[in-house]
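Please fill in the sequence for the structure shown.

STRUCTURE ENCODING:
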């Protein structure tokens, strides 16, 4: 049966784009962190939406599970197959065209395989901004961003991937093409099908294209790194910055001193803005549609008030684009520094912004009681309540040995998240990694509704099986 199926796939996509050898498939089977390798019957690389539709029809006919895949930058095993070897990987990497840009309507229509950075660059050529931004933007794709409802650093002002998408093109599990590529801000014509597929992690269909929102390209940006004593001070600074800067406040990133010490040890060439350590730091950025003087003046005033009120202990305001990039590099190198230092237990969580300081204090204490000497690497998008709350081993404890405590660490962290009214997944999705945790924290009613939607749209259960459910 598999040979007949694969022969049909070769007829659809072309022989070079149906990969079956172990060497050819290997780059598509590892997860981003290198901790898991799946197996696949084949890797299919369609050239366009019509080929996707025909391949999905073939999968439905032969009952072959399929795993949609974009840039493979996910952290929850959402885009890699399991170890059964029965599924095919459907890589959309060849579908990477910008279909059109409407600068007046401020929309861009792109293939799902477009790399995020390429979309940003294409928008800029038309004096427009596509504001979704994240550390993996040079590799991640629009389809993956939408399938996980990615967030990144600009959510505070612009919203996450869902808010930045007006329309979708989707291939259903039956191989039909739903063309919902409408660049409309208002369209009240029944159920919002778009929102079903955004954040569904490829379990309901394959996103093949999207209409994205664009914004005016800012005339100037201004960046500062502010040193603080506690996370409570960071919340006070956020309130001050929002009150004084309003919609100009684009990014508000929290980093603990542990984060900056880690970055400094692994990347000594990066800037060292302060002569002595502080408990917490906030990287904040303002965008202005007026001028650099407007952005710089607003930021300098805000920082000055924070220092006068004792909210901030010290601050560095970037005097050039190069200095701004240097400050951002400190934030964006945290995950890379962690990877170089060794394995750790990662959490992508969110809690109401007003409760973040109490959450950090209470959860830090519980983890230190359970695992004395544990290293807590806490950073994230404070402006939207999203923390990357990562846990490393005590000094002298081998990383692999400490990873054996992952279930116990997760229970402490996730129970605390639940107690504070938060979510165990803020922007990375559920995938296979958090599948069992989901049913613990979602109500039976929520899980039943989600399963009903899955069963209705994908009755054969071939779309990204084992993910979310």
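FILLED IN BY: designer on duty
SEQUENCE:
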């Amino acid at each position: 049966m598999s040979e007949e199926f694969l022969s049909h796939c070769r007829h659809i996509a072309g022989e070079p784009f149906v990969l079956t050898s172990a060497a050819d498939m290997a780059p598509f089977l590892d997860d981003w962190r290198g901790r898991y390798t799946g197996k696949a019957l084949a890797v299919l690389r369609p050239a366009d939406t019509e080929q996707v539709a025909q391949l999905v029809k073939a999968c439905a006919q032969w009952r072959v599970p399929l795993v949609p895949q974009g840039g493979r930058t996910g952290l929850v095993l959402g885009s890699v197959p399991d170890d059964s070897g029965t599924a095919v990987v459907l890589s959309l990497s060849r579908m990477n065209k910008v279909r059109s840009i409407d600068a007046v309507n401020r929309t861009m229509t792109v293939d799902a395989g477009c790399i995020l950075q390429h979309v940003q660059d294409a928008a800029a050529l038309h004096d427009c901004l596509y504001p979704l931004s994240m550390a993996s933007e040079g590799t991640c794709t629009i389809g993956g961003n939408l399938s996980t409802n990615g967030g990144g650093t600009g959510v505070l002002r612009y919203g996450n991937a869902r808010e930045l998408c007006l329309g979708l093109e989707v291939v259903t599990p039956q191989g039909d093409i739903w063309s919902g590529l409408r660049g409309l801000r208002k369209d009240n014509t029944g159920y919002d099908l778009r929102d079903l597929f955004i954040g569904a992690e490829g379990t309901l269909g394959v996103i093949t294209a999207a209409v994205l929102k664009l914004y005016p390209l800012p005339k100037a940006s201004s960046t500062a790194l502010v040193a603080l004593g506690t996370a409570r001070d960071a919340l006070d600074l956020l309130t001050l910055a929002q009150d004084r800067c309003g919609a100009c406040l684009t990014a508000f990133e929290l980093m603990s001193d542990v984060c900056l010490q880690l970055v400094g040890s692994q990347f000594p060439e990066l800037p060292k803005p302060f002569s002595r350590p502080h408990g917490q730091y906030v990287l904040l950025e303002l965008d202005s549609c007026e001028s650099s003087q407007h952005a710089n003046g607003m930021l300098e005033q805000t920082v000055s008030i924070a220092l006068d009120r004792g909210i901030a202990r010290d601050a560095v305001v970037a005097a050039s684009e190069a200095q701004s990039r240097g400050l951002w590099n400190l934030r964006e190198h945290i995950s890379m520094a962690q990877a170089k230092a060794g394995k750790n237990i990662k959490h992508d969580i969110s809690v109401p912004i007003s409760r973040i300081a109490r959450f950090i204090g209470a959860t830090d204490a519980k983890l230190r009681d359970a695992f004395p000497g544990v290293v807590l690497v806490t950073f994230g998008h404070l402006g939207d309540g999203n923390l990357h709350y990562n846990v490393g081993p005590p000094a002298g404890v081998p990383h692999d040995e400490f990873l054996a405590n992952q279930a116990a660490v997760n229970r402490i962290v996730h129970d605390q998240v639940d107690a504070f009214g938060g979510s165990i997944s803020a922007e990375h999705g559920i995938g296979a990694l958090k599948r069992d945790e989901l049913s613990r924290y979602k109500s039976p009613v929520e899980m039943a509704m989600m399963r009903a939607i899955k069963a209705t749209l994908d009755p054969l259960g071939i779309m990204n099986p084992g993910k979310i459910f």
